[in-house]
Amino acid sequence: MTTHRIGASGIAGAVILALAHWGFVPDAAAEPKPGGTLTVASEAEFSGFNHTQARIFNQNTSGPASAVMETLFAYEGKDIVPRLATEFAEAPDRLSAQVKLRPGVKFHDGTPFDADAVVDHYQRLMAPDSGVNTSILSPIASVETVDELTVRFNLKEPWTALQSALALESLVNFIGSPTALQKDPEGFHRHPVGTGPFVFKEWRAGDRVILARNPDYWEQGLPYLDQVVFRILPDANTRYQSIRSGEVDIGRMDTANHVLDAAKEPNLEVISYEGSGGFMWNFNHSKPPFDDARARQAVVHAFNAQAMIDTMFLGTTTPTTDLLGPNSEWFCKDIPWRGYDPQAASALVKDLGGLKFELVTVNNPAGRRQAAMIQQFGKSVGMDVGIRMVEQSQNVRTGLSGDYQMDVWRFSDIGGDPDLVLSYYFGGAAGEPVTRHDTQRIDALLEQARGETDQAKRHQLYCDVAQVFSEEAIALIPIRATYNAISHPYVKGVPPLQNSLIRVRGIWLDK
Q1: Residues 6+ away with beta carbon under 8 Å from 191
Q2: Pairing of β 508-509 and β 491-492
Q3: Domains of the chain as residue ranges with CATH
């Protein structure tokens, strides 16, 4: 997994061929310069910042959330590095681990960051009625205070991926001020309080979020920026032109024509990253017709991934052949993978006596185009596919509520140990997944892999999970996600776009 800055010299080949290793090669530049305002383009409205009210942070929300709230550990390339924690020590019996916390850290409201704050955070999210999908943390039995700066994580069974799970920069690990949360939960939803390099200043609904530099940040010298503004620009053309004109400094861009155009612009750069993410459509296994595996298999076989890559993605990404992708060290090279086979799709539709369903998609140009192509793929093999449009910020709620038959989703590049992404999307240890599928086979494999210390055996177990996913057609993941951001060359220190997130902690401006 790598990040590449690409100029006018052919992004398509670079995206596909140059992704050879993990890590991040920083900008070859002078000493970082402090000051300035960075404006980041976001695709949609933010979902709010109180973990239990939002339930999921979409990629737009995760940007400002990661700047205001922090995690115990974090990934930098392939390495786990300390953030709010300084040490991780596993017990000899592997049934617990102690985490030492960074001393002298305070939340933005002046209250201390300590062991009680960490315990409060995880207990709140792991409570049965929290509404948060904590599958990633399901092997944790309890979290307890040892002393003011030491926390113990007690496990249900040995778990190789615990530190990796705690390093995931996502809703489950972003720690907010317990005082602020208890005092005004609704206020926190609109105005989060954390320990991060930036302090939350303002959320103008439908327009922007504004963050200011934290002058008391625990890491000396950071952040470099005085202010960060996350602008909401749902229309891809408007977003691209705003970056091009300099009104916006950097923004994520999914539309291939904009990415290819930007690569030819001398005053723009394309930052590309391919990890284990993918474009995903969920089947709701709890409702007809997708409670029948034949219906799910038919849709998977009807999806012409190469046609969509050629026409919509203009060759800037690749089809999937497993769950995690060839740039992952956990890639499953030789598993049988269910893919495009129109004859098999037609036969399954005939066997079902026809297949009719509704596809929920995001109401933007990319979502509408993808949905129209799926509709045509289905029609070519005898399916009747209807389309229902929802706004991007509403789509998360649609998936969580189960108000769909087939729904556009995102298979995120969670990174780190594969247990994290596989348990989050396909395991059931901490609640029902969005697809509402029977998790028994996958849960058994994940449980076995968590306690396995032999890496080769663990790898095979994760390939077995991928095989179950393909056999049962749990969801549709036909195309790898290559994440692209378009930026001006003066934006420096951009880390890898893991999970498509622009992390602003160490970014600086050379102008």
Answers
A1: 49, 200, 203
A2: antiparallel
A3: 275-481 (3.10.105.10)
Given a contact cutoff of 8 angstroms between Cβ atoms, the answer to whether 348 and 301 are in contact is yes
Rg of the chain's alpha carbons, rounded to an integer? Answer: 22
Band (pLDDT 50/70/90 cuts) for residue 24 is: very low
Q: Is the Cβ–Cβ distance between 137 and 126 less than 8 Å? A: yes
Strands 198-204 and 150-155: unpaired
pTM tops 0.85, yes or no: no
Alpha helices in 320-364 (DSSP H): 342-352
* C-beta contacts of 234-243 below 8 A and 24+ residues apart: 234/43, 234/44, 234/364, 234/392, 235/364, 235/365, 236/364, 236/365, 236/366, 239/41, 239/43, 240/486, 242/41, 243/41, 243/268, 243/486, 243/487, 243/488
Given a contact cutoff of 8 angstroms between Cβ atoms, the answer to whether 476 and 37 are in contact is no
Q: How far apart are CA 178 and CA 192, in angstroms?
A: 11
- Assign 391 to helix, strand or coil: coil
Q: Quick check: 380 and 424 in contact, CB under 8 A?
A: no
Encode pLDDT of 304-320 as tens digits: 999 999 999 999 899 99
Handedness of CA 38, 41, 45, 50 (dihedral sign): negative
